[in-house]
Write a structure and sequence with these properties.
This protein has 49 residues and is an all-beta fold. Helices cover 0% and strands 16% of the residues.
Length: 49
């Protein structure tokens, strides 16, 4: 599986939060930083990030 290329638009998605469901579309028109990282315990895991 390949991921999106740099600068590509992220597809809309939904996730659960303590305040209820949140969709990427909820942030339309706002500044938002999405950060994706590799699997834990790999050479690029969150500790290195």
């Amino acid at each position: 599986m390949t991921g999106p290329s740099e600068g590509a638009k992220a597809p809309d998605f939904e996730l659960e939060s303590a305040d209820g469901p949140i969709r990427l579309a909820d942030f339309a028109g706002k500044t938002l930083v999405l950060y994706f990282y590799p699997k834990d315990d790999t050479t690029g895991c969150t500790m290195e990030a």
